[in-house]
Predict the 3D structure of the following.
Amino acid sequence: MNIRYYTRTFFRLALPGLLCLGLVACGSSQSKPQPQRRAMLSETGKPADFNGFWELDYSKSDNIQVNLNALVRDLRQQTQRAPGGGVYQQSGPVMVIGGDSGTNTGASIIGLAQMADMITESQLLEIEQNDHKIKVKRELDFALTCQFYLGQYHTVETPLGKEICGWDQHQLIFKIILPEGLTIQHVMTVGPDRQWLNIATTVISDRVTSPFTVNRVYARYEPQDDGYSCKMTISKGRVCTTESR
């Protein structure tokens, strides 16, 4: 994982009331755990295997606007259930839903959705995995990496935050904790036939009382090696052109 990327993105989106405090580096002094011999078992009884090339399937993936609308409805319901009924106000771009001290403002809600959209925009993945580690290469983005440890998560602390990764049964978890109450988590799940891959990305902020989750579904594909170069586009799907040799 690349904690600096998330930190730059977080501050670039400028969620309300940011203070550049950072986290104090702890520098782990604990004895290093033994690498895990095998990945956790999948639902099929075999090790969960994410190896291969994957392309984004827009038809099966979440729509950011739909998820944002659902988040707003959830926050309204929270307000209605709260003692005193809370408030819901909207005037142009300004929106407040039952919050105070900058909680659940329009800027913070939209900022959460924008963050989720930005960090899940990769259309192509290349995953390399063995018994001890995994590397998820993402198009136009940094790679997610994790070493597998027996019975526990792998944790790295830096002055900018904390990175955690590891297995939860058949799912692989990447989690990053940033300053100012922001947490980002990726949960990877592969289908029983290894023809699809789901990455559920959840962004949590202490300025919004509900998390924002986006599911991206990827289909397996084999890269072309016959004089063609292919890329994914939102409007046309996969577009291939001939390469000069």
About this structure: The longest strand covers residues 196-205. Residues 3-16+34-242 form a domain with the Lipocalin fold (CATH 2.40.128.20).
